[in-house]
Each structure stands twice: as C-alpha cells, then as structure tokens.
Amino acid sequence: MRKSHPIRRFVLAGAATVSGIVLLLSLKPATDPASAQAAGGAAPPVAASPQGGAQAAGSGTVTGDAARTQYGAVQVRLTVANGKITKAEAVQAPKGGQSDQITANAVPKLNQAAVAAQSADIDAVSGATYTSAGYKQSLQSAIDKANAAAGAGQGSGSQESGGQGSGGGAAQARTVTGAVAQTQYGPVQVRVTVSGGKITKAEAVQAPSGGQSTNITANAVPKLNQAAVAAGSADIDAVSGATYTSAGYKESLQSALDQAGG
Fold it and tell me: Cys staple from 145: which of 62, 77, 110, 154, with CB 3.0 to 4.6 Å?
C-alpha cells in the first residue's frame, strides 16, 4: 500500500485554495465607474444648459433694427414659420479692410447659432466681438417685431407701434422695416407703421451722413416721411437736391410696404 506524501497533499491543498480565491474574485461585480461605463452602464447625468431669451412667434419675414457698432452697422433679417426661426441672415455687416474677413467668418456662424438657439441668447464669435454684439442686438429687435406681429390679434402691438388703431379691433397697427437701399452716398432704410391699411407713420432709420450729406438728409428725410404718409404708397416725388437719398428712400419704403402686405 502506497503512502501518500505530506508534501504532495500540501501542494494539492494550496492549489485548491488559490483556485477558490480566483473563482470568488471573478464573480465580484466591478466597482470602477470607468469599467462600468465601458461595459455599457449609464454614465453620470450631465446637467442640461438650455439657452434662454424670448423666442420668435408667428410666420413671415422680419428685419431687425440696424445696430451701430464701432466698425459699422449690423442688421439681421429673420424668416419665421409657425413660431420657429427657419433662416437668419445679416443684411448689413461691417465691411472694408480687415472687417471683410471678420464678417465672412463670423456672420455664417452667427446665422447658424440664431437658428439653433431660436433666440438672441447666442455666443459671440471669437475675434468678432463688436459684430457679434451688434448681431445679437438686431436679432433681438427682429424677434421682438415677430412677436409683436403675432400678438397683434390680441392687441399686444409692437413697442414701436405707438398705440394706433384705437377704433375697430381688426385695425391693429403693425410696424415693419424695409430692406436697406444702398446709394452712392450711403444706405437708406425706412420703417413704416401701418394701421387699417394706411401708413400712419414713416421714418428713416438709416440715411446718408457725414459732410454735406448730413445737411441734405436733415432737409430731405422729413419731407419724404410726410410724403409717404400722405401718398400711402412709395409713389412719391424726389426731394430737390436729394436725388440719391430720395431714390433709396422710395426703394426701402416699397420693401417695407411689401412686407406689410401692400
């Protein structure tokens, strides 16, 4: 009868103990967050940071007021459908010299950001601080106008409307800004308030300035404003000595009337 050797029994017992420990460790659940995520576990929740700011309402095309910056005017036009901004574009932006490159880089990004955010709460583009600030200001103006137009049925009116149309409830005042008309001496842009199908107010939010243009504008624009209200259309006479300004005024006035529905 063969005797079992003590050393052999010790080795076999030790091997069995090690195998048991390995088996227990393999059954222990992972506790390392990185391992859990790699194995398909849910990652820790990240707090959402939705952008604030008023959103546009209604449908149509609206142009915000021109925002003056250190390097030139910035003006934004929005296309809104069913309360959503579907398109944003800068109809005016700084130009000339280095401004051309900055504008070419910044404006497309700002347009995309406006559509994505659905508000004027968008980040400035690096290297285009002034243009970004002007863009946001004009964008907010356009959104305000879209909201005012959408709420006209409830009598909300626009901040610029001035409380016209106190008679029948259907005759609500609406303020629209025409497209910028470029002239030999500078841009011209007209804003009109329409109530009951009539122009109740006309004003030039942009007109040539600097040097002799300042005097010509000061003389011509008030006459053109009066003529627009009196005629109720863009079929008005040019002011003597202000041929280019008058032509630009009529062009922008017609654009505003087109937006207002004639």
Answer: 62
